Amino acid sequence: MLIPLLSQNSRGQTGLVPVDYLQVCLSTCLSYLSVPGFEDDDGDDDDGEWDDDWDEGSMEGHAPGATGDGEGGMGEVGPVWLYPQSPLDCEVTDPKKGSKMYGLKSYIEYQVIPTSTQRPVNHRYKHFDWLYERLLEKFGSAIAIPGLPDKQVTGRFEEQFIRGRMERLQGWMRRMCRHPVVCQSHVFTLFLTYQDQKEWKLGKRRAERDVAVGQMIFSLMDPEAPEMDSVEVDQKYEQYSRFTKAMDDGVKELLGVGQTHWKRCTGPLPKEYQRIGEAFINLSTVFSSSGYQGESTLTDALTSAGTIYQEVAEIVAEQPKRDLHFLLETNREYKGLLGCFPETLAVHKAAIEKVKDGDKMVAAGRISTQEKTTMKQRLSCMSYSLQAEMNHFHSNRIYDYNRVMQLYLEGQVKFYEEVPL
Amino acid sequence: MLIPLLSQNSRGQTGLVPVDYLQVCLSTCLSYLSVPGFEDDDGDDDDGEWDDDWDEGSMEGHAPGATGDGEGGMGEVGPVWLYPQSPLDCEVTDPKKGSKMYGLKSYIEYQVIPTSTQRPVNHRYKHFDWLYERLLEKFGSAIAIPGLPDKQVTGRFEEQFIRGRMERLQGWMRRMCRHPVVCQSHVFTLFLTYQDQKEWKLGKRRAERDVAVGQMIFSLMDPEAPEMDSVEVDQKYEQYSRFTKAMDDGVKELLGVGQTHWKRCTGPLPKEYQRIGEAFINLSTVFSSSGYQGESTLTDALTSAGTIYQEVAEIVAEQPKRDLHFLLETNREYKGLLGCFPETLAVHKAAIEKVKDGDKMVAAGRISTQEKTTMKQRLSCMSYSLQAEMNHFHSNRIYDYNRVMQLYLEGQVKFYEEVPL
């Protein structure tokens, strides 16, 4: 069967940005071909439905609460992955402590509820980690598969840690759901929709035996487009290299100052407001003991100023959780995503170099002319794939940063309005 | 001649608090008697006018911009100094660099303009210091004479230092002007109103020869009131001891956290906002280089958010100069004033102990019964004086803290309103 993963979107719209926010005109058509031995068991393939209408698709933004401003003009973004018509999303929720081996071993189990079935499945952190390993192995050469939130040895059962981990697991899952190739893969579908332990165990074993991994992924793609000019391949590579490096630097800079700011706003700054408040209240108490008449207006003012400063301290300390948190989490996610590109780009670079050496290798009799032609075709396909992945990255980036900047600025405005002075 | 310095104010109002803010009912009358050898040259005494009407006085608040809330009820504050009907004030302004010894020695000269004459006189820091020494020597046992702003060896000619010193000299001078005993003294009048160098030099020499200094000041006071009960003397002493110590602690606490807050608000905090702004602008630049269409809304938003954060940085860094500065300066002044009380109270305590030993000393033939009676009278007078000084302190304190808290809170409200978010 055909599993369309890369595709021309005929209306030139990507699924993750508001429809009036970005209009693109596609020049290339990619499709994704099944090959023998790859995900050969599709008997219970829920995703089969995508096959039929992959090239009709106008993808309405599935991102929640997206708001877009109109942007004039039609642009070309080039190759894009085929986006499913019904976007997938999921919730990670309801962490529960479980135990095995007669209570000797404890763990936290989360409910994962995909929008496709609305049926919760249970997973432990180690299952997410297993999924991550499978996705990385299978798609890592072509697609940015960001790491999971860190493992932690101590304090794993503290509520704050569990909440934070759950939030990040949800962020990771939702990002994977948003990826049109990942979300339609068998292993991801298995993780989200397995019916029982038997299906889960069988599916796991099959996924672990999958041989269509690593650079094999490119064999499964057919851009159905003219072979790309080598100059263009080079240019695209350079452009994406520069961009991802520059954005990585920018994101790390923002994370750096954001984390410093977080610490100041939750630590020393509110402590100072608290101490100013205490100092006012203390002076008020001292003044009340003066034995001098007629200073209740002053002592009342000092007490209420002191109380207000203690409230300000609380508001200041809580504020970062209301706005800076999301700015930092989004940038942490992007730091993770951007960390994937050097690897992807290195695979690409190696292929470019190999093709450049192609003539010499043919002359030296190390490869045949046919092999050289196949190498060039493969590189062209890789470049289309890289462009589709970058376009996916860009449309997500624009949506995510628009949303988080709006959240952050709204939070900041509220903060300055809410301070009870 | 009689120079009234301590007095019953018949309307029960002190000069430094708004008239409807505080009403006091006085129980005691003190007056200030001239004695042979003390300030004997009163030929050009501008302050002589106070003599006649010292006990008529309804003192309207001479403090600038005072606003008060009504406080119900009449209270008793006890002895008060006699306040002049026209309050004195002065401006310290227009610092100019002068030089002596053919330019070998440079100094800064300030114009001091008293409200009484409106005629500027010039003074260097060392003249203020000379005046401080005279006032301390003469009145230090009875009146809080706070120190001048610190001497500084390096950077004396830097504009910021000169401005700061001038502001504090003005604060010191205005506080001295507000003290009814100090402001009517010959040496203070000389400093503010000397006509020429000859008068200044003669006046200086006379002041330096003044013998009515130290505890002699109490010989010049006549409370014209019944001798105070020794239990009451003890109680007052204890009350003032406790209060000034507690307020000193409170003021130091506020100064401590205020200075920390000042450093944070002028240093690391705006630097962080600046860096957040830069990070936004930088991300905007990176995003603009994506080659992806339709993200100008995002990049514009990032750039303007970045610009706003750089403005916020400036506002945050400037804000302490607009509000916290005055809170800190007022508390610094009070720290200086409060630092005078341990000395004054020690003089008082010693007198209390001496009177307590009176009977034994009479029995041992070391003093006569007459001397013991005089000692008791003197102690009573000292206690009246201490009460008058404390009442002066309290009325100033209430006025100053009302004003500075209002300024500070208004400044803070403006800050939260002005942030351009």
Automatic annotation (TrEMBL), chains A, B:
Organism domain of life: Eukaryota
Domain PX: 88-198
Keywords attached to this entry: Cytoplasmic vesicle, Membrane, Protein transport, SH3 domain, Transport
Residue stretches of biased makeup (Acidic residues): 38-58
UniProt GO cellular component terms: cytoplasmic vesicle membrane; plasma membrane
GO biological process: cleavage furrow formation; endocytosis; endosomal transport; plasma membrane tubulation; protein transport
Biased composition (Gly residues): 67-76
Short name of one Pfam family: BAR_3_WASP_bdg
Positions of the UniProt region annotated as Disordered: 37-76
Keyword Protein transport appears in the UniProt entry: yes
GO function terms (MF aspect): phosphatidylinositol binding
Subcellular location: Cytoplasmic vesicle membrane
Family: Belongs to the sorting nexin family.
PANTHER family registered for this protein in UniProt: SORTING NEXIN, SORTING NEXIN-9
Protein name per its UniProtKB record: PX domain-containing protein
Organism: Gadus morhua (Atlantic cod)
Organism ancestry: Eukaryota, Metazoa, Chordata, Craniata, Vertebrata
